[in-house]
Design brief:
The protein is an alpha+beta fold. The protein contains four helices and five strands; from the N terminus they run ααββααβββ. The chain starts with about 20 loop residues before the first helix and ends with a strand.
Length: about 150
């Protein structure tokens, strides 16, 4: 057996930072077998955020030539904090909540990528005044990017 104690004297060893390969993002986007399955994933996210104080949840879906719109009312929506969490691949505040459908923080984002190249998200958290808008023309690109949500006008 090798003696590894001599390595303990090495100074200034930089820490190893855990990283997410951009390829995992593409895997999540290709994880669906058909558009309906991807649409159901987005619907699941709305169900997870339904407002139990204001039922029933109403979800409108419109499909046009190059556009699919999901609009839900009576859900909690997303403010800046929730949008930031949503954009964190693999992060989910729902992971240990047995009442929630989503657990892994990749489904909704992957479904958006499966359904199209570009996306626009407009959202408002219940009880907040600001409507946030995020526009991305190349959602499927392989790089991890910095997205800047802006207050919608």
């Amino acid at each position: 057996m090798r003696d590894l104690t001599r390595f303990s004297t090495i100074k200034n060893v930089p820490p190893i930072k855990e990283r997410l390969s951009e390829g995992l993002k593409i895997i999540a986007m290709n994880n669906y077998s058909n558009p309906l399955e991807a649409a159901m994933e987005i619907i699941d996210n709305s169900i997870d955020e339904r407002d139990s104080q204001n039922p029933p949840m109403i979800l409108d879906i419109s499909i046009e030539k190059n556009k699919i719109t999901f609009f839900d009312s009576h859900s909690l929506g997303m403010g800046y904090k929730e949008l930031s969490n949503f954009l964190n691949w693999g992060y989910s505040v729902k992971r240990f909540d047995q009442r929630k459908i989503g657990k892994y923080g990749a489904g909704g984002k992957g479904a958006i990528g499966y359904l199209g190249v570009s996306c626009q998200i407009k959202t408002k958290r219940k009880g907040e005044d600001v409507i946030w808008k995020l526009v991305e023309s190349n959602w499927r690109n392989e790089g991890l990017k910095v997205l800047r949500p802006i207050p919608a006008t």
